[in-house]
Structure formats: C-alpha cells, structure tokens
Design a protein that fits this description.
mainly beta
Length: 226
C-alpha cells in the first residue's frame, strides 16, 4: 500500500519485493506499507455462511517499509535576555532510491518477515522545516511540516549525509544574528547511524548560548491493523 506506489512489485515465496522505489519530494511523500502473510484464515464469526452484517473479514497487520524522521528543539535553560529561533531544518545528501525485500521465512503455517532494503542510491535533499519557530525550554516537535518518511539506509560510509539547521539568535533588543550548524550522520550515535524499516527517529536539538547538542532517539513505528 498504496497500490500505485512507484516501483516494480512482485510477490515471491519470500514475500513482497519492490525494485526501483524512489522516495518522493516533501509534500508528495506517502507511507509505504506491506502486510504479514495470512495463513488459513476464516471469517471472524467462525461460520462458512456469510450473511449481511455478520462478516468482519480477516485482520491484516501492515508494517512500515520506510523510516520516519522527526525533530524536537529546545533550549538548555531559560534565557531571559536571548531569543533563539529556528528558521530551517534540512536533511541533505541521503539516498532516496532502492529495492525492498520482505524476507519471509515460513514453515507453511506461519511466517516471519525480515524486511531489508538494498541497492540504495541517490543524494536527495529534504526540507523538514522552513519558517520561524521560537525555541523554548520545552522540547517541542516541529509540526509545520509533516514527518519526513525516508528510505532506510546506513550512513557509516556516507560522509555527505547531514542535517543542517539554520537559526537566529538575538540578545536583548539587538539585531537577530543568523547562524548555521550541521551534523554529519556518519558520526551520529550508534542508534542513528542506520535508519531501519519501521523505525521512527526523533532528533532532539538543544540550544545553549555557546553550543548546540544533538541527541537522536529511536522508537518502533506503530503497526497498522485493518
């Protein structure tokens, strides 16, 4: 899902395979989902006779094939004489195309998926936020732009992949001075050097008056039953 997602879809003994998938630009992105394989399912009422209103179908659990990227920003402490504003956050030079393999292993009655992306290529840029947001001590998600839904990949050998933050800092009634800071993803903590399928990565950015801290956290992206 969606059925018209970009790429060539085939269904193998090892499950769904997609070749030539490319992540769309921000504003056109969608959540790429794959389902578990269902074995020997029957109607939930236990009857082979289906009457109107008495059949609820087979529950299928869908999983996220891509990775979700979010940002939270805050200040280290309250600064009464300083105003810090985020103006832009970009994810730069990350792969945006690849091939997906669901990787089902089965005994004929049950199956376990081990999803994997291979052949990642491209160097795409994505804008996660573009506006003006005053940073406070409360760690708040930037919600002016929807979550980025990007291709799973390993950054260990990609020195170009970065997160770039543009901001302004104003002391008292003085002029707002623009600033820029970048983080290389190949030097991120181990929990964020790889984006995995079905994982949500929240990048926590903390400003102080002399430095910016960067601390990614990872959670499982919720399954979608239908």
């Amino acid at each position: 899902s969606p059925a018209d997602a970009e790429g060539t879809f085939t269904h193998m003994a090892t499950g769904l395979q997609i070749t030539g998938f490319t992540v769309p630009d921000v504003g056109s992105q969608y959540d790429l989902l794959y389902s578990d394989r269902a074995y020997d399912k029957t109607s939930t009422n236990g009857s082979t006779t289906v009457t109107p209103g008495n059949y609820t179908g087979v529950q299928i659990d869908f999983h996220h094939a891509l990775s979700s990227i979010r940002f939270k920003v805050s200040t280290k402490e309250e600064y009464t004489n300083a105003t810090i504003k985020i103006t832009k956050i970009e994810v730069l030079s990350v792969a945006n195309s690849g091939n997906f393999n669901q990787g089902i292993t089965t005994d004929g009655t049950t199956g376990t998926s081990a999803p994997e992306w291979t052949g990642q290529s491209g160097a795409a840029d994505y804008t996660a936020f573009n506006g003006e947001y005053e940073v406070t001590t409360s760690a708040a998600e930037l919600t002016d732009v929807s979550d980025l839904i990007l291709l799973p990949q390993d950054f260990t050998d990609n020195a170009n992949a970065q997160i770039k933050i543009n901001y302004t800092m104003q002391m008292g009634s003085g002029e707002a001075i623009p600033g820029e800071h970048t983080f290389q993803l190949n030097t991120a903590p181990d929990n964020a050097k790889t984006w995995a399928p079905g994982s949500r990565y929240t990048y926590n950015i903390t400003f102080s008056l002399d430095e910016i801290h960067f601390a990614p956290s990872v959670t499982t992206w919720t399954e979608i039953p239908v």
